[in-house]
Each structure stands twice: as C-alpha cells, then as structure tokens.
Design a protein that fits this description.
This protein has 274 residues and is of the alpha/beta class. It has one domain: NAD(P)-binding Rossmann-like Domain (Rossmann fold, 3-Layer(aba) Sandwich), CATH 3.40.50.720. It contains eight helices and eight strands, in the order βαβαβαβαβαβααββα. The chain has an eight-stranded mixed beta sheet with strand order 3-2-1-4-5-6-7-8, with helices on both faces. The radius of gyration is 17 Å and the shape is globular.
C-alpha cells in the first residue's frame, strides 16, 4: 500500500481507528475524517504510535452537514492528487429521533447520505486513481430491513435499531448500484459486516449510552474485513458484493433488487442536491 491514499471516515474510535492503524501499518497514507478536532488529534497520535508511520493525516468534518461534506471533499481534492481507497465507516445510532442541520433525520443523514454524497463528490478523483476501491461499512442487521420510501425521515415511526437497520440496507444497495455504474472503470465497490465488538455504537444499539469497552485486539479483529477489501488482490473481480469475515456473503432479496437500488440512488441524489 506504499504511496496509496486511503480515506477513512469515523477514524477517531472503534473499528474506524483500528482500520486506520491496519492501513498505516501496510504503508498507506491514511487520511482520517473525524468530527471532533480534540478526539481526532488524540486518535491520530495513537494511530501513529501503533502503526509506526507518520503518514497519518487528519481532516475535520461533521458528516451530518452536507455543507461540511462538500468542504471536506474540496479539501481532499486540493490536497491529494490521488484517492486510492475510500472507506465510508462512520455511523451513529441516536436513541431518539433528531434531525441534522439540513433538516434530515440524523441516521439517514450520517449513515447513508453522507457516504453517498462524499463518494460522488470524490468519484472523478477516485476514477483517475484507478485501480481504486470504495468500501461501505454496513451491518448484518440490514437483513431484516426494507426501505420505507414513504417515510424515509422516520417521521411516523422512529426506533433506533430499526432505523439503523434501514440505513445499513441502504449501504448495501448503494454499493450494488455504485458497482453497476462503475463497471469497467477500474474502481471497485464493496459493502461489509465488520462484526460487533463492544464499541460506543454497539451500546447505543443496545439502547443505552455507554463507552467503548472492546480491547484494541478485538477492534483490530473487526477491522480485518475492511482492511482485506482495501488491500487484497483477490477481490478485484468481486465488485458489488457484500462481505463478512473477509468472504462474500449472500444478502437478501431486497438488498439485491436493482430496481430498489436505482430508486434509492435517485432519491438520495435529490436529498443531497446532486
């Protein structure tokens, strides 16, 4: 991975931080995207120490804000002539419904629309960097979900786990449609289930506010599929697939429906102004 630029969102904690360590250990230039300057700076120092690499950069953006995502993309385009790997890892699970600065339900905004917008804003640069890869961190909980196109904002009903499952299904569908659109471009797209270590995110999924309890070894184990998809030559011809434990996994009929994937793309483009 020497000389390759790898962007990881949500890299200040949990699986994102472990993914950044793994890529930096392999020689990549890692660009962390974090919301908090303080937590991001502390995580950067830890990643540098663990990886033994100084090629770890930090960019600050609140992925709940489309204006900040656009500014983030502009900064990346101005500072990095190549983007070889984009890992859309950041996710949230608010216990109660809230909305973003753009008036969008927060899980929809951060877990799906943020990676959709950031990917599309960087896509031309990713294409000229080919062979390159886009990796969307989903979850196995997507298997029980369908897309409520008549209530995407969860205005009629909000439960934190069911909305999270919907956004993780959106990650898989986005990946499928992205792979279809990128066929022959030299850019591959993958989605994955990373595992369920005891992160702050997993405590929110369980229904309470809590801190990360997983050891770094457990986080590294959960980061292995993301690292594998970013680095392995064995997945070049497997674009569009959903992975777990570094292997292709069968998904659901809904997750494999091209009509739903295309409809989601169209709605997402409208919601992000693309």
């Amino acid at each position: 991975m020497d000389g390759k630029v790898c962007i990881v969102t949500g890299a200040n904690a949990g699986i994102g931080k472990a993914t950044a360590v793994g890529l930096a250990q392999r020689g990549a230039t890692v660009v962390m995207v974090c919301r908090s300057p303080e937590r991001g700076a502390a995580a950067r120092e830890e990643i540098i120490e663990r990886a033994g690499s100084g090629e770890v950069h930090l960019l600050i953006a609140d992925l709940a804000s489309q204006a900040e995502i656009r500014q983030l993309a502009a900064t990346i385009l101005s500072q990095y002539p190549r983007v070889n790997v984009l890992i859309n890892n950041a996710a949230i699970i608010p216990l109660r419904r809230s909305v973003s600065v753009d008036g969008l339900e927060l899980q929809l905004a951060v877990n799906h629309l943020a990676p959709f917008l950031l990917t599309n804003l960087l896509l031309a640069r990713i294409k000229v960097s080919a062979p390159s890869r886009i990796i969307n961190v989903s979850s196995g909980v997507h298997r029980g979900a369908t897309i409520p196109f008549d209530d995407l904002q969860s205005e009629r009903h909000y439960h934190h786990t069911s909305v999270y499952a919907v956004t993780k299904l959106m990650n898989v569908l986005f990946t499928k449609e992205l792979a279809r659109r990128l066929a022959g471009s030299g850019v591959s797209a993958y989605s994955l289930h990373p595992g369920v270590p005891a992160t702050k995110l997993s405590t929110h999924y369980a229904g309470y506010e809590g801190e990360e309890r997983a050891s770094f070894a457990e986080l590294m184990a959960s980061a292995q599929t993301s690292i594998y998809l970013a680095t392995s030559p064995d997945v070049v011809d497997l674009s569009g697939n959903y992975f777990a434990n570094s292997r292709v996994q069968e998904s659901t009929a809904v997750a494999n429906d091209p009509d739903i994937a295309q409809k989601l793309w169209q709605v997402s483009a409208q919601l992000t102004g693309l």
